[in-house]
Amino acid sequence: MGIEITGWGMCAPPSILTNDDLSTILDTNDEWITARTGVKERRITHTSLSDMGTVAAQHALASANKDPKDIDAVIMATCTPQYIIPSTASIIQKNIGNKTAAAFDFNSACSGFVYGLTTAYSLISSGVMKNILLVGGEKVSFFLDWTARDTAVLFGDGAGAVVIESVDSNSKLYSSKLTCNPLFGEALMLKNFGSSMNFDRNKDNYFGISFVGQEVFKNAVKTMARLAEEALTEANLTIDDIDLCIPHQANLRILEATARRCHFPMEKMIVNLDKYGNTSAGSIPIALTEAIEEGKVKPNSKMLFLAFGGGLTGAAAIIDWGSRVTSIKTSDAALPESDKTALELIKEISG
Fold it and tell me: What tens digit of pLDDT does each residue of 92-143 get?
């Protein structure tokens, strides 16, 4: 028995927020943002997180030619859930027409998709399940302080999804390394949310985002490089055996520094953060879907997924890609058109 990703899909909201747009509401400009982050634009959603996740899921299911009723679990990786109860996964489950699967959310911040990938492969390899829909997505725009330049320029909204299933092949998860260093948890934190929420806070930075950029940068590079090395060692592989690396799209400088530390060529690393910014748990499945559509994923290749996020979490996983790099079917699922620009949506969020 083998395990493979057999379907893939993404959802990018239609409203685009450019760096020039941000310069009209923040003391910044395109040159400053691009030099420090690599981001040129990002998407701002006019719909819910579950709407984005559902569209991505419908594309992934069509890609795999998988009946939604055959899905054994819907797993949602997100740190910006639509509700506390019920899970965003269960709403997506309902939207795709499945009434019996397990459904749950989990929050490993930007590392969520790789945590979910490891969980899905483990559930299938143990024989507990056969077909799993894994969705990663965020509606970060709702929680941002749009007066704070250091965070406002980084993030965007979006979702991606994959179908993972038991197949008649030798494909497998070679290794996975998951970690969290709680001593640096406050370096990237949403303080005013959940059961500790203070409803009397001032409107500015209502959700209490804290972001210590240098601490995050330093730990991101060291942790992803270390986990990549550990995953390769456990898999009895070298960096030269990896055909493609799909990292969390946090910041171009982080990705370049990690590649240097791993002695990994940038041309084998997928980068699309210039178009979407940091979509947290959505970034890897979005990048994966685009890489496949652009012909960058080759049959029977070995792929390395790398991530780092709030917590501070980190993750690395190495898998076999299967023989198929084209979708069996396609879906016309899409978000409804937005009648507002990205700037108008931000002003609406900010009140």
Answer: 999 999 999 999 999 999 999 999 999 999 999 999 999 999 999 999 999 9
Is 248 labeled as catalytic in the residue annotation? yes
Rounded to two decimals, the pTM is 0.96
Sequence-distant (≥ 6) Cβ neighbours of residue 257 within 8 angstroms: 217, 221
Active site residue 110: yes
List the beta strands (DSSP E) in 12-130. Answer: 15-18, 41-44, 73-77, 102-106
Is residue 59 flagged as an active site residue?
A: no
Q: Which of 107, 205, 272, 278 is catalytic?
A: 278
Q: Which domains does the chain have, with CATH numbers?
A: 2-171 (3.40.47.10), 173-320 (3.40.47.10)
- Quote the pLDDT of residue 33: 96
Strand, coil or helix: what is 182?
helix
Catalytic residue among 19, 205, 245, 248: 248
Active-site hit among 110, 180, 245, 262: 110
Contact status, residue 281 vs residue 109, Cβ threshold 8 Å: yes
